[in-house]
Design goal:
- Pfam families: CheW.
- InterPro entries: CheW (IPR039315), CheW-like_dom_sf (IPR036061), CheW-lke_dom (IPR002545).
- The protein is mainly beta.
- The protein contains 3 helices and 11 strands.
- A 6-stranded mixed β-sheet has the order 8-1-2-11-10-9.
- The N terminus and C terminus are likely disordered.
Length: 156
């Protein structure tokens, strides 16, 4: 086994749960992970934007990632987490049910989504088979497109 090619091929990911499903993103887009705290709602914001939170003097939007992915709204609990990400030059907090793990996996384990998954797959780069589970690998860059930040409810 050649560890040099594996190191170059490695994906460092953070895995989290939404409604008993596993998702992940690249760790390079993560600034920090925080426990859930109430947010300040913003009138007339899109349904997936729960409100804003003060992060050490910077006000950031908090997005219900489940809603963004077309799932039922998450119910925030003391086990919920806010994954603070830096994407396309913007800081965004993502509400998730809980963070599962930080993993390094071989890039070769990332498999494309089947064509039958439909248009909702637009935010995914594929599926990672890990242990006995499947983890959907999300593309935050596509989810929060740099072309039009207003399309998901926040100004740049």
């Amino acid at each position: 086994m050649n560890t040099t090619s594996n190191a170059a091929d490695a994906l460092e990911i953070i895995a989290f749960r939404l409604h008993q499903q596993e998702f992940c993103v690249k760790t390079t887009s993560i600034r920090e992970i925080r426990g859930w705290a109430p947010v300040t709602p913003i009138p007339h914001s899109p349904y997936e934007v729960l409100g804003v939170m003060n992060l050490r003097g910077t006000v950031i939007p908090i997005v219900d990632l489940a809603v963004k992915l077309g799932m039922p709204a998450a119910q925030a609990t003391e086990r919920s987490a806010v994954v603070v990400t830096e994407v396309n030059g913007m800081t965004v907090g993502l509400l998730v049910d809980g963070v599962s793990d930080i993993l390094t996996v071989a890039g070769s384990t990332l498999q494309p989504l089947p064509a039958a998954t439909g248009p909702s797959a637009a935010f995914s780069d594929g599926i990672i088979a890990h242990d006995k589970s499947m983890i959907c690998f999300l593309s935050l860059e596509r989810m929060f497109g740099e072309d039009d930040p207003s399309s998901w409810g926040m100004a740049a």
